[in-house]
Amino acid sequence: MSSRTKQKSGLGLFIKVLLITTLILALIVAAGMLAWNIIVRPPNIPLLADWNWGNTPPNEGGEIIGEDGQIIDVGPAPDWATDDDRKPSFFTFLIMGLNEGTNVNTIMVASYDYVNREANLISIPRDSLINVNRNIRKLSSAYLVGSRGGRGRAGGVEQVQREVSTVIGFVPDFFFVIDYDAFFTIIDTIGGIEVYVPMRMRYTDPYQNLSIDIQPGLQHMDAQTALHFARFRQGDPGFPSPARGDYFRMESQQAIINAVIRELLRPSNLLRIPEFIDIFNASVYTDLPLGNMTWFAMQLHNIRGTDALSTYTMPVTGTSGAPMWYELLDAPGVVELVNRTINPFTRDITLNDVNIIRN
């Protein structure tokens, strides 16, 4: 065999090996992408007929009795709603922030509209007056009431879902229960956040071993400082206090959420989504599987606008005053805000769909 023939034969063999290797790599990549698309995908929106109030099924008469002995007369959606009334690819979430694992200090309802690339978040005052039959009718007590009797976290979530549904007219699709002390570690992982501080924050509570001291202006915060910022609602004597402490704290929490998302949207941090999800899993109790959470995390860069999400606070007409200091929700204002932001149905929620005590 001539030298030239040998060269052609060797070249042909090399091309065949290269083609086979390329084909194998292409198959591996295709299989990986197929597996990724199977695992990392949007969740299925729960069907209205499948929602059965979690751990408390109806009794023989078809009634659902809450921990407080009251008949639960609200369903997962307005009476007129069907699954066909749902907006396409519109997801809603109930977010609860726990303090020391038992008290709900933060209640939010969020939505993500995949079609229009919009995200909204509404903070509900924790002292909102709820139409329930118990001594303390604040929304913040719902989780503790529901978790009694050995029902634990599932019972606590269920009770909050019920009571939030009386305010917004439907049960959010999914839930997150967040341990703030653990969750805020993500701020150190992303290198801190920048937040504007509107006033000198100085507060000391020796009983909680808490000492807050944050200067006004734009501040770069680590996790501990951000947690203090989120909890501040009253200043020490001689230092400023916000006019309405709980509302100030809700705005602070919203500012931190936006700041965290801004950092997560940086290209270098988008590559670290699996690391952030590990932290999230360690500090959050949720009914969303990992693949669904990863899909939502990857949607962050798709949300349009300068801010990753729009934040609101549920409107009130005032407070009941001493001794309970209930926040009195503004029913028409609540319904208007819900329809403008988080309503997952093509029809508007009405005053008949909510159960808000009106004065």
Strand order, main sheet: write it out.
11-6-3-4-5-12
Largest sheet: 6 strands, mixed
What's the CATH topology label of the domain at 48-186 and 249-353? Aminopeptidase
Task: Identify the CATH class of the domain at 48-186 and 249-353.
Answer: Alpha Beta
Give the name of the CATH architecture of the domain at 48-186 and 249-353. Answer: 3-Layer(aba) Sandwich
Helix content: 25-40%
> Using DSSP, what is the number of strands?
14
Q: Going by CATH, what is the homologous superfamily of the domain at 48-186 and 249-353?
A: LCP protein
N-to-C CA distance: 102 Å
**Rounded Rg:** 25 Å
Q: How many helices?
A: 11
- The helix-strand sequence is HEEEEEHHEHHEEEEHHHHEHEEEH
Sum up the overall morphology in one term.
globular
Describe the structure.
It is a single chain. This protein has 359 residues and is α+β, with helices and mostly antiparallel strands. It has a domain at 48-186 and 249-353: 3-Layer(aba) Sandwich (Aminopeptidase), CATH 3.40.630. It is 37% helix and 20% strand. It has eleven helices and 14 strands. The chain has helices at residues 3-39, 142-147, 152-168, 180-183, 185-189, 223-231, 245-264, 267-270, 273-283, 290-298, 331-341; strands at 64-65, 71-72, 90-99, 103-113, 118-124, 174-179, 193-197, 201-205, 210-214, 217-221, 284-286, 310-313, 316-319, 327-329. Strands 11-6-3-4-5-12 form a six-stranded mixed beta sheet. Strands 1-2 form a two-stranded antiparallel sheet. The chain has a two-stranded antiparallel sheet with strand order 7-10. A hairpin with a 4-residue loop joins strand 4 and strand 5. The longest helix is centred in the first third of the chain and has 37 residues, at 3-39. It starts with a helix and ends in an 18-residue tail after the last helix. Mean pLDDT is 79; it is low at 27-37.
